[in-house]
Amino acid sequence: MDKLSLEARINAEVFNFSGKLGFYASDFKGNIIGVNSQEKFESASCIKVFVLTELYRQIHEGKVSRNDLLEYTEEHFVVGSGVLRDLSYGIKLDAKSIATLMIIVSDNVATNILIDLLGIDNINNTCQNLGFKDTVLHNRIDFNKYDKLGTTTPKDYGLFFEKLYKRELWSQEISQEMIDIFKRQHYNTILTRELPQYYLDSENTGDEELISIASKSGSMDACRNDGGIVFTPYGGYVICIFTKEFNDNLYYQDHESYRFGAKISRLVFDQYIGLKGRFR
């Protein structure tokens, strides 16, 4: 056994982590790395990618239009992440704008609007039909009524982003539209925290932006998760990092899940770049 393999270095990196790690990564060259990748985790807001997938399925089939106006009502209200909760009831936005808010600022109100529009059963059936066998949306978001939102595995989450990268979700155009939304994600702390920031920020450096991320994170008291596609000049790779059973339930940028997860993300990045587009 190679004690300095990428898998071994990942395990060494999280040796002092108080919780449990779930990890999945694919370089699209036949190299897949997994640590507890088929174990079920609370999805938190990561379940929102599957809500987006169902929206675009119904758009693809002509059941819903991107331009359909959706109204924010009192029934949709929920605390937590997002901006719609601070706006007045009765505001209307088109379906694509609602979906964009759900992803890029993880808007909980937007999520409830879309869940009510699309139907929980339809979302779960689509997950099963796409092969995400361990992914389930249990409830709309209501912290007073439900303590569970969704369940998934690092592998299911990784398979979603693999299909997206290969433009296999409904059509090439729709897949690209979804990627463009994920690239505008505001909360990708785990994946990007330790990456070379210079290559992520052409706006401030004036240089070419060599690295970009299409991702969706999720956090609840019981978990801190992140996953998506890292695009590089050598191609892209999928990486999903899920954590649970840690000691610290507080929310802050130096949480141990963010620190240890970010170290793993950098390990994978360096391996992929060092080998010019592959893990092995």
UniProtKB/TrEMBL annotation:
GO molecular function term, any single one: beta-lactamase activity
Taxonomy, superkingdom: Bacteria
GO biological process entries: beta-lactam antibiotic catabolic process; response to antibiotic
SUPFAM superfamilies given in the database record: beta-lactamase/transpeptidase-like (SSF56601)
Annotated Beta-lactamase class A catalytic domain residues: 22-243
Pfam family, one: Beta-lactamase2
InterPro entries found in the cross-reference section: Beta-lactam/transpept-like, Beta-lactam_cat, Beta-lactam_class-A
Protein name: Beta-lactamase class A
Organism: Tepidimicrobium xylanilyticum
